[in-house]
Amino acid sequence: MIAILIQYTVYGLIFYGGYRFLRHQVYARGGALPIMHPGAFLKRYYRTSADSHASTPFQRLQQWIKESEAAELTDTAARVDATLEKTADYPAKVLVCLGDSITHGRCSDDYVQRVRDEIRESGWEVVNAGINGDTAWNMLQRLQDVIACKPDAVTILAGTNDVNAAQSTNMEASYRRSKHIPVSVNLSLDGFIHTMREIILSLRSAGIKHIAVYTIPMIGETDTDAINQTVEAYNLALLTLCTELGVTVLELHEAQRRMIRGIHYGELPSDEHQLAQIIAERPARFEKLKGYDVTRVEREINIAPYRRFVMMQSWNTIADHYGYYTLIDGMHLNDRGGIAAAMLLLRWVQRNLS
Questions:
Q1: Residues 255/207, Cβ–Cβ less than 8 Å
Q2: Is residue 64 part of a domain?
Q3: Average pLDDT over residues 203-225
Q4: 21 lies in a domain?
């Protein structure tokens, strides 16, 4: 009897250990930094002046003075100017995409990489400044990392986590705890718009003229859900802010709605060739659109990375399994949604920055 108990205890420990290891590997892959994040950009395209100078005592003295002056500066971008120099293959233009997990592209389609693949040959470098779970306030705290890249253009995709945090006191407490958000920070519609204003004005103050803001994507694919009504309210306020500040709006939310109508109801606009390309391979027609249920969506979000990183399924395959057209799990973009986000950005770049 004791031998059997020991045997099953060992089996249990092995199973539990294997599960913990698998879980760690899945979430490590889902949280891994993008290939070209701000830190990687600085490492790739800047080098310390001392690498190629300071060969004589006088030059070393000049280098020491320069580094001493830089140490007194508090601004990240200024420190980059003072201590680093650009490499010979520094890109002609730099685009930074600031956002949350939808931009991060590990638990969502990597629309940033799609854009990077399309425009890199024309001299662009595209930097992915997305971090899983970030609210607009979190993005504001790391804005100097974006500015340090000296971008010619910046896009911002924020708001999904702000809307989530505003759902309930429990959800708000969860975000404050996991993302280290102080109690003094207002996680409401007013707080979101105030923070977005600060982000845009800070970028403008840093000399960045070309700024585009995505509308907040759908959460679940039913317009009538309460949470999508909240998304609509946030987007309306965001559009008002962007109009006031003269910032370009990339209508991702509307693009999703068009895609869903096109796939679900067959209402494909004849003049939208890009949209036709997105839905060329239609998933099985679902009987009804899938709305939002917090318990189900949380379960889908937890399981989707296992399907992706263990079973090696595509985001579209996972989305089709769950019953979504543009989303994977009720919140993150699948390949169809990611292509839409990339197309909106590429169109903006080609029209305004080519």
A1: no
A2: no
A3: 95
A4: no
